[in-house]
């Protein structure tokens, strides 16, 4: 689906506008990514718990 190209463009646009965001790429696909949970779940939990 090549979503990475749109995501890269979006992060460039956000940076240009000074909008805080987090964007990470990693060399993998949509399966066998359990190792990413150590990073993504704490990030998501923190974002959801903010008022």
Q: What does this protein look like?
A:
The protein is mostly helical. The chain has one domain. It contains two helices and no strands. The mean pLDDT is 92.
Question: How is the topology of this model organized?
Answer:
Elements: H1 3-16, H2 37-49
Tally of separate domains: 1
Task: Please outline the major beta sheet.
Answer: none
In DSSP terms, counting alpha (H) and pi (I) runs of 4 or more, how many helices? 2
The helix-and-strand class reads mainly alpha
In total, the number of strands is 0
**Average pLDDT for all residues:** 92
Approximate strand percentage? under 5%
End-to-end Cα distance: 34 Å
Low-confidence stretches: none
Q: What is the share of helical residues? A: 40-55%
Radius of gyration, taken over Cα atoms and rounded to an integer in Å: 13 Å
Query: What is the molecular shape?
Result: flat
List SSEs in N-to-C order.
Answer: HH
């Amino acid at each position: 689906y090549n979503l990475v190209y749109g995501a890269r463009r979006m992060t460039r646009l956000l940076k240009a506008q000074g909008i805080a965001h987090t964007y990470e790429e990693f060399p993998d696909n949509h399966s066998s990514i359990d190792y990413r949970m150590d990073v993504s779940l704490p990030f998501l939990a923190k974002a959801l718990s903010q008022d």
